[in-house]
Amino acid sequence: MNIPALAREIADQVRSGILKASDVTEYYLDKTEKLNPAINAFITIDREGALDRAREIDSMVERGEDPGPLAGVPVGIKDNIATHALRTTCGSRMLEDWVPPYDAHVVRRLRQSGAVIMGKLNMDEFAMGGSGETSFFGPTRNPHSLEHVPGGSSSGSAAAVAAGMVPLALGTDTGGSIRQPAAYTGITGMKPTYGRVSRFGLVAFASSLDQIGPMALDAQDAALLLSVIAGHDDYDSTSIRDSALIYPIDIKEKLRIGIARNMLDSIEHSGVRASMDRAISFFEEHDYEIHDITLPHSEYGVAVYHILATSEASSNLARYDGIKYGHRAKDFSDLQDMYLRTRDEGFGMEVKRRIMLGTYALSAGYYDAYYTRAQKVRTLIRQDFAQAFEKVDVIIAPMTPTPAFRLGELADDPISMYLMDSFAVQANMAGLPALSVPAGYDGSLPVGLQILAPQMKDEYALRVAMDFQEAGQWHHRVPVEVLP
Amino acid sequence: MAISKDEVRKVARLARLGLTEDELESMAGHMESILEFVAKLSEADTEGVEPTAHVLDLTAELRPDEPHLDGNATEIMKSAPDAGFGFFKVPKVIGGEEI
Lengths: 484, 99
Description:
B: Histone, subunit A
């Protein structure tokens, strides 16, 4: 039996009765169980739940009903997205045993579209990290080289898709956490426009930046998954009305491309530079109208991000108090001591660092110097984009300064790790849709190209990614570590 | 920018994080290096610039105030580390250390 790698092909064949959802699910479960000990992409594999759901989908098809656009497609869910009756750990000891009493909005959408939820994916603890190494459940490894990180924080989502353990995964992106691991693992990952996908049921990290998005083997599959999860939700007060996305993407107009010159010029890594030069040649050769643009305040992005994200996190993570859900310390002397011990035991070091920095930035006497100033520079970054988008429809930029680094390489150097997100955080600052598409290799390690678009023009970025991926065919390369 | 261990201790109390002496030490070093790094924000000219709290032009909408069933209290209470008779159980709140 020939089981397709692409979600849209699986769905087509399941809907038309050529393939059985239960065979597809069995195939991907077997593959996952074989590969997961080496890659550690999944925290929880739901074999029973997935096969039950697959059989339901098969009966629907037999009865002549249409299960939906993701009929029989196995999907992995990042473990900070609530799944009813399926453990949701957030990569943390704090939520090690938390079984949500409800589904996130995106999960409900997936179930309604015929998807088969195969399990929950590893991640940096509370989505704080850029390597997957801060997970309480151990690091995830890059399927292209087990010595290298897959990036983060959506480490398991990226590795699982790259390794062919699932055709699709959901990730979340607060400062690059979908796109950076997508670049490191040679897949396509997208952060949609802020507000286009409901955050209801997403464990909050930095609420003004967090966004759920698709991770897939190519741009069409990413668009398909986005079309299932996008759209208004009454349960998220920042959800945009009329924000559905139509699949397939139908953009006829000729899109103008802006090249983020100052970001490209800052690249020192020869392999990344070569991939970026080749990408620009592609757009020149294919008669795109090209303009150089600059984003002068982008150099402040990571600093703004760290003040705002840690401040919001220190407030959001105050809820983990050992009372309503999550870990509670066993031994304590009184209520205050219970809080202190519960949070000390429940959170890992990187989460503590960020809570501390955010608490400091918001504390009396420092608020204006850090938080308010960061919010003002955020305005300047948004204005840079507003100006650039007056003359171009999309912006292309590097995704990361280097390909994936080695496990442990940056463990003692948090600032170097944070700087890996220099190009990524910009989209979160301005609420823009942005994606990473495979753009080449440096040895065995993938390199990603970033494509950004104005708010609610997610379709533009996807359209350009579809054109671009055809040229290099980088998205078809199978990671060496999972070759049969 | 130097941060004293006492200052770090105070922030840890505010954040309800029970850090050990060693952790306080390494946290001070980390916070210093981050604050040094973000100090570059003072180079940006923010004269007359409005702060961004949110990137969307959304106004808060009100929904009709109608009762409806949502969630299952029994299932929700199952997540609690300690509960009984439909209540969350907590250590004694009155008395104890001032914070």
